[in-house]
Amino acid sequence: MTDQAQLQRAIQAAEDQLAQALASRNVATLLTRYTDDIHLMPHGTPTLVGKAAVGAYFEEVFRLGICGAQFESVSVEGAGDEAREIGRYTLYAGPSQDERVVAQQGRYLVIWRKVEGEWLLHWDMFNAEQVETQV
Fold first, then answer.
1. Mean pLDDT lowest among 42-51, 82-91, 94-103
2. Dihedrals φ, ψ of 134, to 5°?
3. Taking a C-beta distance cutoff of 8 angstroms, is the pair 41, 124 a contact?
4. C-alpha pair distances (Å), 94 with each of 5, 54, 63, 71
5. Nearest Cα to 51, choosing from 126, 101, 124, 134?
6. CA 73 from chain center: how many Å?
7. Measured in Å, how far apart are the chain's first and last C-alpha atoms?
8. In 15-27, which positions are buried (b, 16+ CB within 10 angstroms) versus exposed (e)?
9. Rounded to an integer, what distance in angstroms lies between the CA atom of residue 126 and that of residue 110?
């Protein structure tokens, strides 16, 4: 197996951990998946820098009903302690995991940094896909 294939599996595993943290709806748990100087660039929102700003953002996201996510790593490149990933996401909303519906789908670009042996999101940019309407 190539190093890049191993890297892709490691990054997908880190994305799966992020999805579990989102499902917990616990901001402190979620913030463990990010570097201290995270740059979060959500669709239609100014860049948020640092865990305090990102934590406040996710407090609002959870208040609005987001209760889970699924991430699919499409492409990963990197070496050493840094990796770049392109992927697709689905966000879910609802009062519980059993009653959730798709709230948003889109794509993302993440710069990962390995900190103390663990892959953490360092720069995270995502945008929703435009929904087509029928006329």
1. 94-103
2. -95, 140
3. yes
4. 35, 22, 11, 18
5. 124
6. 11
7. 49
8. bebbbebbbebeb
9. 8
CA angle (131, 8, 62) in 5-degree steps: 45
| CB-count burial class (<10 Å; 0-12, 13-18, 19+) for 80 | exposed
What pLDDT digit, counting tens, does each position of 97-128 carry? 788 899 999 999 999 999 999 999 999 999 99
Dig out the tokens for 39 from the structure.
């740059």
Distance of CA 37 to the CA centre of its chain: 15
pTM, full prediction: 0.90
Whole-number Å distance between alpha carbons of 124 and 85 = 10
Q: Which two tokens stand for residue 55?
A: 């934590």
SS3 track for the chain? CCHHHHHHHHHHHHHHHHHHHHHHCCHHHHHCCEEEEEEEECCCCCCEECHHHHHHHHHHHHHCCEEEEEEEEEEEEEECCEEEEEEEEEEEECCCHHHCEEEEEEEEEEEEEEECCEEEEEEEEEEECCCCCCC
